[in-house]
Amino acid sequence: MILDPDSKLAQRLNLVLFLLPAMAIYVVFALYPTFSVVEYSFTDWDGISPEREYIGFENYQRLFSDRIFWEAFRNTFVWSGVIIVINVGLGLVIAAMLARVWKARLLLQTMIVLPVVISPMAVATIWRWLYQPKGVINQLLDGIGLDFLMRPWLGDPSVVLYALAFAHSWSTIGLSVIIFLAGLQAVDEDLYEASKVDGANAVQQFRFVTMPALRPVTAVVFILTLTQSFKVFDIVWATTQGGPIRFSEILSTYMYKRGALENDYGYGAAIGVALLVIVSVATIIYMQIQNREGR
Fold it and tell me: Which of the two ends of the chain, N or C, has the fewest CB atoms closer than 10 A to its terminal CB?
C-alpha cells in the first residue's frame, strides 16, 4: 500500500521515523541503565556473581539506619548549596558585569571559561597543590598579614567541604557565565534606557531589569548546576576520598565505596536511586517555584 505523502498518517509516520533513532539511543543508554540500577537496588548482589537475590526494600530500610549515609546526605546538600550560590548567584553577577565591558571582553571571557575545559582530575591536582599546608594560598595569606587564616585546607574538617566546593565552582562557573551572557543578548536594550530615564542606577537595573529578564535562563543554569553538583565524584575522590573522617563524604563517593569497593552493589544502587530521587524532587520544586513567580 502506498500512502499519500500529504495524508495525516504519512506525516505522523515520518515524525515517528525521524524521532526513532534518537529515542532508541535514549532508551538504550539512558532509560535502560537507570531502570537496571533501580532493579539492582532491590537485590543483594556483589556486582560480580551471575546470581542476584531479591530482597525487596531491605536496602532502602538500611539507608534509614545508616549514619554514614545521612552524614553524606547532609554534606551533599551543603556542597550543592555552596556551588549553587557561587555558580548561579556569582555567575549571574559576573555575566551582567561582562555584558557592560567592551574592552578586553573576549580576553576576560576566555579566562573565565578556560577552567571548564580542564579535566576534573587535572582540577583536583591543581587545587590539591594550592591547598597544601605550604602551598600558594597559605603563602599568600602569610604574605599579606592574614596568617591567622592559614590552615591545612584539605585536612581541616571545618573547611574541607567548602574548599573542595570552591575548587569545583572554579572549574564550572565559566559555563554558567556563558549561558547567562547568551541570555543577556536577548534582553531589550530599550529596557535599560528606559530605566536610566527613570533614574535607576546599575544595582537597580540589575535588580529590576536583568534578573526578571533572565528568569528562564536562571532556571536552566540552576538545574544544570544542581544536577552537576549532585553527581560530582572526581575532585572529591582525587583529593580527600571523603576524608578527613568523612567530613567531605558526599553521596556519590559513599555510593562508590559501598558498591564498587566493598562489593555491596545492591546497597550502592539503593544510594544511587536515593540520589536520583533527591535531584528529581529538588528540580521539580524549583520549577514549580519558578512557574509560580512567572505568573
Answer: N
